[in-house]
Amino acid sequence: MATVTVSPKYQIVIPKEIRQALDIKPGQKVQAVRYGSRIELIPYRSMKEARGFLRGIDTDIVREDDRL
Questions:
Q1: 43 — alpha (psi -120 to 50), left (phi > 0) or beta?
Q2: pTM
Q3: How is the chain split into domains, by residue range?
Q4: 5 near 14, Cβ under 8 Å?
Q5: Interior CA angle at 19 toward 41 and 3, to 5°?
Q6: What's the rounded Cα separation, in Å, for the pair 15 and 19?
Q7: Cα-Cα-Cα-Cα dihedral sign, residues 65, 66, 67, 68
Q8: Which residues on adjacent β-strands are paired with residue 10?
Q9: Which of 4, 10, 13, 44 could make an S-S bridge to 29, C-beta 3.0–4.6 Å?
Q10: pLDDT digits (tens, 9 = 90+) for 9-58
């Protein structure tokens, strides 16, 4: 787990290994979401980039008997 420091201007640097793994580029937007007591940064992807990202997902859902 990487640790980051908040600057006096409330800025952080995303560690290199995370930027590379998520293919985050300079100037790219990320969504900052409060989730309970933590902050999640979600890379923004345009609709064109996101197209087909669910291809190959397993759509078989096991339903409970009372949910049919």
A1: beta
A2: 0.61
A3: 12-49
A4: no
A5: 70
A6: 6
A7: positive
A8: none
A9: 44
A10: 999 999 999 999 988 999 999 999 998 999 999 888 777 877 777 788 88
